[in-house]
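Deliverable D5.2: sample structural annotation.
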Amino acid sequence: MAKIKVMDELLANKIAAGEVVERCASVVKELVENSIDADSHEIKVYIEEAGTKSIQVIDDGIGMDKEDAVLAFGRHATSKLKTEDDLYQIDTLGFRGEALASIASVSDVILKTSIGKVGTCVELHGGKVVSIESSDARRGTSMTVKNLFYNTPARLKHMKSLYTELSSIVDYMNKIALSHPNIKFTLINNDNVLLKTDGSGQLLKTIKDIYGISIVKKMLSVEASDADYDVRGYISLPEVHRSSRNHMITLVNGRVVRNSELNKTINDAYHSYKPDTRYPIVVLMIDVDPSLIDVNIHPTKMDIKFSKLEELKTLIADMIHKELKKGTFIPNAVEEEFDIKEEKPRYVEQKISFGTINEEVEDYIIIDEGKNDNQLFSLEGLGEQNPKQEERKEDRLPDLYPVGVVHGTYIICQNDKGMYLIDQHAAKERCNYEYYKKKFGNPTNENTAMLFPYTEEFTASEYIILKENFDVLRNIGFVVEEFGVNSIIVKAHPVWLKTEDVEDSIRKILELVISMEKNFSIEKFNESAATMLSCKKAIKANDFITQAEMEKLIEDLHQCENPFHCPHGRPTMIFYSNYDLEKLFKRSGFENSQ
C-alpha cells in the first residue's frame, strides 16, 4: 500500500496559513491589499481586541459576483495571474491566491460582496462553506474574520501581547496609507480611531496624519531618477531621528517592502549628520518596471529582489547627500509652537484585555484623541524647508560674531537674527574630521622622519594582521618596518600628523588596523581614523580660548562641508532667535518694553 498520499485541501490550507497568516496584522495586510487591488477609493478597517476577537475590512471596490465570491476561497484561486508570463509583470499587490484560503482555514469568515446588483454573502467555518445567501447590493466588499486561530491552539498560545499585535497592525496601516495617499484609510480599534486619511493624494498630508505637524515641518522633499528607477518622497532633517529603523519606509510600486540594504544606504547617507545609533524618518516611493523586481520570494511579499540594486542604492544615496548639503541645519533651542487646534493631549491610555487567550492579559495602548475631522490643514510651505542656496559653501552657515564663552565650553555668538551657542569641542572636532578625512583619502608620500623612532611589540596574531597591512600604512606616509620578533618600528610619519602626542596617534592608528582584522576596508579605515584623530586633537571642554581663536574656529567651520554636526552626529551649535529671547524674558507683546 502506498505511503504517500495527496494532502487534504483543508490540511494544506492550514499549513499555508502558517506562512501567510503569521499574526493578526497578516490578516489585515492581505485583506487591505485585496481591497486596493479591487480599485477601492475608501477602505475601512474595524478591529476588536487588536484583531484577536474580530477583523473587518470594508471597501468600495469593484466587488465580486456570486460565482467569484465562492471561488475566491479556493487555494491558488486568483484573478490577477492568468499565464506564466504574468508572473514577471506583476502590477498588483496580491497574486498568489493563497491568502483567503489560508485565513478561512484558521478562522470564521463572513464575506459580503456586490458588483452593484444583488449581493452575495458567504459564510465559512474553519475553511468549510457553511452558507451562501443573497445580501445587500452595496457595491464593494466587506470581509469579517472572527475567532482567528481557534483551531490551531499552538499558534494562538504563542501570539504576542495585545499591545504588540495592535502596534503591528497600526504600523502596517500607516505604511500602506503612505504608499497609497490617494485612498481614504480608516483604522478603528474598539471604537477608537487610530488612523484616518482623506485620500487627497498628497503624500505630505498623509505623513502629517501619521506623524503630526511638528514632524511634517521638518521634512525635506527629495526626488531623483535614472533609466530604471524613479524615486520621490520626504526625508527628515538631521535633528529628527528615532531609535528604530522602522521609520525608514520604502514603497516599491505601491507595495510596502523591507530591504536591509536600502535601509543601510539611507542611514549611511546621514552619516555624521546624526548619532549612529539613531535613524531618520524617511518615506521613499520607488517606481520601477515590474520586470526588474521579484516579489515572489516570500509568502508575505514584503521581501523583494532588485535586479539593479547597486544602481538604486547609488541613486538614493546621491539624492539624500545632495539634499543634505543644501540646508542650514541649526536646531532651535526653543521648540516652535504651532497655532493649531490640538491643545488637548492627543493621546490617552485605554485599558483593553486579551480576551481570546486563556490567561487574560491587560495592556495599555496609545489612542489618538486629538484628531479633528473638520480641521483645516494647509500644505502651503510644508516640504519647502530647503533654503535656497548659492553655490558657495559658506552661505550655508550664517555670519557669526563671537562675543564670549560660557564655562570655557560654549562660544556665544550673535548676528541680526539672534544668538548662537557653539560647542567648541564639537565644532573643532568637525573641522579636524574633514581635514583628516581629506588627508587619508588623498595620501601623498611626504613624511617627516622621527628623531626617536617608535617601536611596539605585539602578539603573534596582531603582528600578522599589521604585517599584511603595511602597504596601507606606507601609502598614507608612514615608514614602517619589521623590528625583531613580533615587533615593528615606525621611522617616519605623514607631515600632516601633528607632532605633539604623535606616538599616541600612531599607536591608535595601529590598533585601528588590528581591530578591523579580516573585514578590513580602506574606506572604513579612513573614516574611523579621521574620526578618532579628530576627537583626540579637538579643543576640550573648559579649555579657554582667545577671541582670535574663536574667530578662527568659526572661519574653519565656514569651510566645512557639514558645519552643523560633529563626526558623531551631535550638533555643533544651537540657535535662539530674537523672538525666542524676547519670549523667554517676557518682553514679547509688551509695546513699552525697553
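Annotation notes: Residues 2 and 56 are 44 Å apart (CA to CA). Residues 14-18, 337-378, 381-394 have pLDDT under 50 and may be disordered.
The annotation will be released with the project's public dataset once the embargo ends.
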